[in-house]
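Explain this one:

_____
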Amino acid sequence: MLAKVAIRSLPVLDAPPAQPRLDGVRIKMAAGEAAPVFNGGPWRFIAYLEFLPGTGAWRGNHWHERKREYFYVIRGRLHGVFEDVDTGERAEAELVAGDVIVIEPRCAHAFRALEHAQAIECSPLEFDAGDAYPKVVGRD
């Protein structure tokens, strides 16, 4: 994977843990799943994202000079494409529910649904349209 992209899958626990887990885990219980993904942090931007399959549409196809982005895939599967704008190095990944993706500044990125998917995006910076530079990296 690129130096400007980190992907990790959160471990799944099938019952409440003996000791409280406050981040980085998925807890599956009879009442449903709880995923304390991030605990703390200076979040200034949080967004819900839905990805619809069968449209062929890509979400993203841009990069940021200053903004570091954190994504958590809630459900479904996505195809992710990443390109370091400084080196031109590219990588692709299939992303699934429970994956956390961290994209550093100056890394172009795009996502397309492989099946109905949902994600949360967080950033320590507020969204600034002036810090979003178009770059098509996801294409068919």
Q: What stands out?
A: Residues 5-10+43-134 form a domain with the Jelly Rolls fold (CATH 2.60.120.10).
